[in-house]
What does this fold into?
Amino acid sequence: MTNSRFSNWLGENLLLSLLLTYLLLALSLGGSSRAAPLAHGTLQALAALGIALLAITWPRSLLLGRAKIPIALVAFMICVGLLQMVPLPAGTWELLPGRETVAEGFQSLGISSIASPVSLDVEVTAWSLGYVLPPLFTLLLSVRIGLRRLIRVVPTFLCVFSVATVLIGFVQLYGGDRNLLYFYRDTSYGFPVGFFANVNHFASFLLMVLPFVFFLFRQLGHIQENSDKRIAMTLLLASAFLILILGIGTAGSFAIY
It folds into this structure.
């Protein structure tokens, strides 16, 4: 293997390992929407650093392709959030829907009209913008790695993680409220939640993984018919599919139905 080929191979595998590591961190640490600000902040900081490094090292020959549409949507969302933090002239803010009560409260305190932004809580708005960083980083890293390498690893990784999540959920379901496998204080006690805090998030994740299971079933067509590998893979995928269906059914999430 020449030096250039080795460096390309090493770079591709490092990026793929980075993607899988980040996905593992995001799935295992980002399971609560409110109770884990430190974990979310860490994931967002890592994503921001990763996006910066990708921007610096992005090959000129590599085009974004179809990823331009979701990236444009993310950019639009960021612009909307930033605009909501821009102060409006005094009097204009009060004309917005739902601001009359707040304006009356200011007047009762003897505070005259002041320049205020659209957002009622600028801090929360700024914090919420950070939540676009992890999916944006994952998307850009996936484009950099390439589809051919992704389809060999990512579907299998998601299936394995989802099965582990369901198995943990089963232990939570039958272990009682004091089960140490509940990873969050504010959680759906008495329900299977896996690495998540909310049973709806748990069931939603399992539902999103199902297409990857179907994709792996489709990939079995590339394996020689009636071979031992094909039979073993079919049994494993069928077991994973049944476990995910059981997990969704056991969750009893009305949102998922």
Notes: The first strand starts at residue 87 and ends at 88. The beta strands are 87-88, 116-117. Residues 147-175 form the longest helix (29 residues).
